[in-house]
Predict the structure.
Amino acid sequence: MNILVCVKRVVDTSENEIALNSAGDDIERNDLVYSINEPDNYAVEEALQIAARSGGQVTVVTVGGEDDEEILRREMAMGANQGVLLTDDCFAGSDGRGVATILKAFVRRGNYDLILTGVQAEDGAAQVGGMLAAMLDYPFASLVTSIEVLDSAKLKISREIEGGNKELNEIDLPCVLSIQTGINEPRYVGMRGIRAVASIPVPSYGGTELGLDGGTVGAAAAKVKRTDYFVPALGKGAEMFRANREENVEKLIELLAAKGGLK
Amino acid sequence: MLEGAQFVPAFLSWLVPEWPLFLKIHVLGLACFTYIVARRLVPLVRAARDPRFDRPVTRLGMVLKYWLGQWKHPRYKTAGSLHILVFAGFILLVIRTFTVLLAGVPENFRLPGRPGVASEAYGVVTDYALTLVFLCMLFAMVRRLVFKPARYAVPARYGKARAADAIFLLALIALLMLADSLFEAANRAAQAQQGLPVGVATVLSLPWALKTALASTSLPVLSTLSSRAYLLHEVVFYFLLCYRPFGIQFHVETSLFNVYCAKLEKGTVKPVDWGVGDEHLDEVKSFGVKTFEDFTWKQMLDFYSCADCGRCSDQCPANAVGRPLSPRFLTIKARDYAFEHYPMLRRPGNGQPLVGSIYSEDEIWSCTTCGACEEECPLLVEYVDKIVDLRRGLVDDGKVPQSLQKALKALESRGNPYGKLGKKRADWAQAADFQRTCSVPTLTGKNGADTLYFIDSITSYDDRMQSIARSTARILTHLREKFGILGALEKDSGHEVRRFGEEMLFQSLRRDNVQAIKACGAKRIVTADPHAYNALKHDYRDVPPVEHISQLIARGVKSGAIGFKPLADGNSVYTYHDPCYLGRHNQVYEEPRNVLDAIPGLKRVEMGRSRDRSFCCGGGGLALFYEPKEEQRMGVKRVQMAAEAGANVIVTACPYCLANMEDAIKVAGLDAKMRAIDLAELADQQIAREVPKVEGREAAVIQQECAVGRSS
């Protein structure tokens, strides 16, 4: 099975102290640590596991700039066969639909049976996967928590439903799936793994190579534009129980019961 | 050849008719033993290299101390005393056993010699030695059958009980002693009846008792008895020789080599591949131990040498709290694997991954590398290096628990496991109150400071542990040390990174730190973190010598540079918890205790498990991020030990110990009765300072600021 995983490099929220820039339209980006969007990492791991079980190749693709090659290498160190960078000045400022358009052009060049994305980017809107499927006229399933290959034309997948329930679906290939975290345990990539793939070339394609009309992507084509970015004001602080242990426990149980946390 | 007919004992001629049989058994026994040992050596030949033949004098010293001197044995009084007696008996009996064996071969194979005072005396000594061994075997069997010490039990998850095998082997040794005694007794009884000299009567010995019993037996019967006893002795001897390599008694043969080849440097971790320099590690195809053949030959020899005595697991804190790790079975499972995959007759099997078959991932991550197992092992079997090697294999295959992956990634991108900014590393020194009493410069190589205070990650970033850093800085100031820090250039020491198997990341952190340390111009390093201390001392090269703050304080107390005021709180009872990487791995036991004992009015008790038997708090560094499967926290068990000792203040000298102890005190519900404090904090709090007036503030105010944990 030929699998394509669409990934994104994001600001690592667990390792950064996020602050607004002075203009107030974005976060302060000096001194930030970036990493692969966490759900995307699960998607790559899932692709690698499917390829290990059913055979096939895993390609990892991202839309961005030179700096984004770092995450492609990390995923190649995990085991992806190839990394591809889609980069062009005219891509800058694309909205979700623009990114999906770029990805669609790339998908059309290859022959992929299955396309995976993370359920959403940590700085995104969980929209590219669905749009890409629609543009390709492929079936789409979101919040996928398990994948079983039934045959060369069908998958059995489970999806997470709000409230902790799950549903099982069959879906025809080729298709696009957005992968939920927790579907697997992504393998660790150490420095040694990254060093081992350091010299493998990562091909990059621009708008011309992808046959894209410059007017369909980039800032000019974007129909969704960010107008503001802010950190919400802190709400009322947490309540501290400062009595002795027994009283605290009693009070906690009372509160939990009142809020429906205990049945 | 013996001279004079009167010296030829009658029994030798009795054995003559049976020589062909005896000789066949000798040849067969020796051939079998040689073949079995050769087969056992097959995996060792395929194994990874391990240089263990350097420093022969030191190694001979190890043999004298740990093998001949049985140094570790008295740590377990009953079993240890028993073993010392049996070992001494065996050593004494070596010549006698071979003499008896040679009695059954044609004369020209025997060594020339004549009975003399020395051989007479040797006969007396060994009569008692074999009696002692015989009684020890009986006692050991009774102990195994009736008293059943808990540490020999085999938990269901580790397979079947092995008591039957142990008892069988004990019985065989007893039988060997009995056969020797019977042979001697029959011969001496015959000599006595023939009016030949029989030597000194070894009253109350086993041969003497049997000889007395046989005194009136007829010569023909004695003749038969003698040759049957010889046959029994010979058969049991060779059976034991050939059976031992299949189980726990192989250590009789291997222990001497295992002790000679033991690891000499405590606190160190073996390189990924002996003989491959750090700069060539990229060329190594696979890291760590994945299949059995990835172990070094010495690690395999360890597996063969284990006597299954269970002391390692009896001391192991992971085992004690129900984690899925028992050092004993780490070894036994590997030995069983070796026996199964390197069989006597068939071809050896192909190497299959160990983790997933005989070991589980949780088992390998459960170790805190505290070293209690290694400290206890009478045969000097090593464990920490094996755990690290197995982890290296897991890391290389990407099998790292998610909770650790986050911390490792933060270490890679930020140089600390918390993902905090490097420029905030020295924020602990920015607390306003602290800055008024103590200044901590960042070393540039031009400050003229000769001492570097290396703080390490937890003490730099953890709000509570920052208090240790401030106390340490104040103590260094009091000692008039010209010191400074690396500030943002300091990275995590990587001590746990290396011990959790991420060697390349460790080397990257070390590279950065070594560069910064060299540039800072310091001539020595001080730290309050035993993990950093161990890393700088054993894992780093080309850095100035390092000391732990407890050593400086102890020296200051001794020289008079530090004087303590009496303890205000007279009702507290203190106990000192030895951090593993200060105590066991570096033998710093006395200095912290000397410091405590120098504080007037401080009552100190020792916990049942202290010094080299200290019980790990739960582990430091990355161990804080690992979510183990366990029934209880190690720390909780430890604070309960402190409570049992009658203490209500636990003093330690490690930020991780302090973090684990403080958590455990809360978990154990002892927060009203017990508290934990770092040695540096306590010393800082108790130092008698001639307090100058600073900016018009009163001495008392500053004293108060110096009080532990409140300075920010």
